[in-house]
């Protein structure tokens, strides 16, 4: 057996001071990591294991029964080598994936409006969002958190009133019927019947089947099953309606094109348009006899040809001018008693 000499007191002092310095450095790294992740964290006490709390109280698998304290394994197994910033970030990620539900008795934040047992009154040291504790005492079953902060970027909790309605992906939901806390029907049963219900599950289920709420749920379930069975036929009918709607759009487009063509033809056949065309045609017919006369004077045409051509063109010219005058009179008379053409 080899006996080693005791280290001198100076060595013990040096080793203790070096370990304390290492602990202090590790603690400082944890604080810096937490501040980098969440700038609103405020340090109140620094010598105890942190306890993470949430306000308002929520319902979640990472929370306790009261919905105030986090019971995550990462927080419960916290050591000096743990990264507090990563723990908080993992909690926020979990709340984002599985949104919590507001607790029905969420009234006040325990740290802001009551003095937890074991914690002296605290005055805000440069943190305006932390009011001082009132001096009154409050009984608490949970240990108080030695340090806490306000996390403003928590996901929005789901209200309990909204959580009672189960909404599916297609936007339709089903609201469960209200179930009372007491069942007056049980008071009318005999002791033996109640004993059988307590000991035999079949008897208990038989009693449950007589509840009006359960009957309503069964009826609603049958209706939902029927509606699901009708979905294929509804889909086929919906496709038929879509096909008819597509045909309607095509027919509407063709109708609009024909209406546009009709408007163009109506404008071309209006009284004013006919009058303009008659005026142009009469002017052209008036120039043709003059050209025939010039050709006859120059000797380019025989007298028989001249007479037949001149009389024909002259007749056409007079007819067109007569039609133009009559149309103009009709337009003037119509505009006097009716709207303009």
Automatic annotation (TrEMBL):
Keyword ATP-binding in annotation: no
Domain VPS37 C-terminal: 252-341
GO cellular component, one term: late endosome membrane
Localization terms from the record: Late endosome membrane
Species, as recorded: Pan troglodytes
Lineage top rank: taxon: Eukaryota
Name of the protein in question: VPS37 C-terminal domain-containing protein
Family: Belongs to the VPS37 family.
Pfam families: Mod_r
PROSITE patterns tied to this protein: VPS37_C
GO BP: macroautophagy; multivesicular body assembly; protein targeting to membrane; protein targeting to vacuole; ubiquitin-dependent protein catabolic process via the multivesicular body sorting pathway; viral budding via host ESCRT complex
Keywords: Endosome, Protein transport, Transport
Family annotation (InterPro entries): ESCRT_assembly_dom, Helix_hairpin_bin_sf, Mod_r
């Amino acid at each position: 057996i080899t006996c080693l000499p005791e280290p001198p007191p100076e060595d013990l002092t040096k080793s203790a001071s070096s370990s304390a310095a290492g602990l202090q450095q590790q603690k400082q790294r944890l604080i810096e990591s937490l501040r980098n992740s969440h700038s609103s964290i405020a340090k109140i006490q620094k010598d105890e294991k942190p306890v993470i709390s949430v306000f308002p109280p929520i319902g979640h698998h990472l929370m306790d029964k009261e919905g105030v304290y986090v019971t995550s394994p990462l927080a419960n197994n916290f050591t000096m080598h743990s990264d507090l910033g990563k723990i908080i970030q993992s909690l926020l990620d979990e709340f984002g994936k599985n949104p919590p539900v507001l607790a029905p008795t969420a009234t006040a934040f325990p740290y802001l409006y009551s003095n937890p047992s074991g914690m002296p009154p605290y005055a805000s040291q440069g943190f305006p969002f932390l009011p001082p504790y009132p001096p009154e005492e409050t009984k608490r079953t949970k240990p108080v958190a030695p340090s806490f902060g306000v996390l403003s970027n928590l996901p929005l909790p789901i209200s309990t009133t909204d959580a009672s309605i189960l909404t599916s992906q297609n936007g339709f939901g089903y609201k469960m019927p209200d179930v009372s806390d007491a069942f007056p029907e049980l008071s009318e049963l005999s002791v033996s019947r109640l004993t059988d219900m307590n000991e035999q599950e079949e008897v208990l289920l038989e009693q449950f089947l007589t509840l009006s709420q359960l009957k309503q749920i069964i009826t609603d379930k049958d209706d939902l099953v029927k509606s699901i069975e009708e979905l294929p036929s509804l889909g086929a009918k919906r496709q038929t309606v879509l096909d008819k709607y597509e045909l309607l759009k095509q027919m509407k487009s063709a109708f609009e094109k024909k209406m546009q063509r009709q408007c163009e033809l109506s404008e071309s056949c209006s009284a004013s348009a006919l009058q303009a065309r008659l005026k142009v045609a009469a002017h052209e017919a008036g120039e043709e006899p003059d050209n025939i006369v010039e050709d006859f004077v120059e000797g380019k045409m025989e007298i028989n040809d001249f007479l037949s051509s001149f009389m024909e063109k002259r007749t056409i010219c007079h007819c067109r001018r007569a039609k133009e005058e009559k149309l103009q009179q009709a337009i003037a008379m119509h505009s006097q008693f009716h709207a303009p053409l």
